[in-house]
Every structure is written in structure tokens, then in C-alpha cells.
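[Meeting: bench + compute handoff]

Bench side (C.D.) handed over the final construct sequence. Compute side (W.E.) agreed to return the predicted structure before the next meeting so the bench team could plan truncations. Sequence as handed over:
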Amino acid sequence: MRFTLNGRTVSLDVVGTRRLLDALREDLHLTGTKEGCGEGECGACSVLIDGEVVDSCLIAVGQVEGREVTTVEGLADGGRLTALQQAFIEHGAAQCGICTPGMLLAAHVLVQQSRQLTADDVREGLAGNLCRCTGYTKIIDAVLSCTK
């Protein structure tokens, strides 16, 4: 398998039916992507494929052949946090950390799509990502702070 991962071309010699989640964590040692439910319900394993948010637990690595995959590690530029990542820190939007990578990626797409977001827009945009720690208020505040 060959695909672009966080801006770099990678090659993997794995069975094409291997879950992308497992390939990222175990073969490529990118542990930012988390496994929550393993059924595509929680969003903890969210990554971007060609700019679209997907649950990597539901994607076979063979499906990303020739495509562009971005994980939470790919958001920061040379170790510099994005404004969104910094906002999550400043607003206390990251607590246990399980949902944070998926939330960041979904929020990244949301912020890129529109600069004029309401709290309802953010709730809808993050609807595929579940959090049990923050109650969403801090996450929504963090995202909204990046849209002003």
C-alpha cells in the first residue's frame, strides 16, 4: 500500500483488509488516533481522508491506496500547534484525551469550511464525535474562538 500520510508518502506491506486504525497505531506508530468503540459510533479514531472526516476503525487500509490521510499528528506544523489545538488547551477542551484527536480533526474541517459558525453549527459539525468528560461546552467554546 502507498498513500500520503500527513504530507509524506508512506508504503506499507500489510493485508489490504487490515483496519486503517491498526495500521496507523501499530505499523506506523502514530498513536494519536484512538480506538474508542471500534464500531464507528464514537469518532475517537477519526482521521481525514482526502479532507473528509472518517472513522478509521471502519476503513480498510487498502481503501486509502493513493489517497491522502491526515491524522491529528499532521495538524501541527513542525511541532507548532495550530490555533485550534492551542484553543483546546486554553479552553480546557481536552480532558482524558480519548476523543480529542477526533474532535480536533472534525473541528479543523469545520473551521476550514466556514469562518462564521454558531454554537449550533459546531454541535452539528462535531455530532459524530462523542465525549464523556467535558460536556461539549469547552469544546464548542474552543472551536468558536477560532472562528472570530
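W.E. noted at the follow-up: The first strand starts at residue 2 and ends at 5. C.D. will use this when planning the next construct.
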